[in-house]
Amino acid sequence: EALLVESGGGLVQAGGSLRLSCEAFGFTFDNDAIAWFRQAPGVEREGVSCISTSDGTTYYGDSVKGRFTVSSDNAKNTVYLQLNTLKPEDTGVYYCAASLSLDCDYNWRHVIFGSWGQGTQVTVSS
After folding, report:
1. How far apart, in Å, are the Cα atoms of 33 and each of 40, 72, 83, 118?
2. Please, what's the largest Cα pairwise distance for the chain?
3. CB atoms closer than 10 angstroms to residue 118
4. Rounded Cα distance, 24 and 27, in Å
5. For 87-103, how does the pLDDT look when each residue is reduced to its tens digit (9 = 90+)?
6. 68-73 vs 78-83, strand pairing mode
7. Of 12, 24, 36, 50, which is closest to residue 93 (Cα–Cα)?
């Protein structure tokens, strides 16, 4: 059974930065798709990024390209999401999700992810 634990959320002013972490337990962190999604009240859940732990290939949602960076430290079983130049529209609960034995591709937002973390709150004030 795979378990994901997010951390690093908080309250920041517009233009600030946060680094989120997603630590995984229960599987070998070497051949999987790890994605970040976010949820704000009243809107559809949005795909933020995806990283393939096999080779480090990354994908991003259009609204965060150039501002967010996802990376993987396989030795620590941890994926990071660096959030820069934050905007109030980035506010929401951020979740990481895993699909085991899968690589991210251009259809990553439509993949069914079988494991989800509990989420971490990001709030950006104007």
Report:
1. 23, 11, 20, 18
2. 41
3. 12
4. 7
5. 999 999 999 999 999 99
6. antiparallel
7. 36
Record the tokens describing residue 13, joined without a space. 């002013």
pLDDT digits (tens, 9 = 90+) for 35-73: 999 999 888 999 999 999 999 999 999 999 999 999 999
Structure tokens at 117: 């973390």
For residues 33 and 50, the answer to whether their CB atoms sit within 8 Å is yes
Per 3-state DSSP, the chain is made up of helix, strand and coil in percentages (nearest 5) of 10, 50, 40
End-to-end C-alpha distance for the chain, whole angstroms: 40
Distance of alpha carbon 89 from its chain centroid, rounded?
16
Ramachandran area for residue 101 (φ above 0: left; ψ -120 to 50: alpha; else beta): left
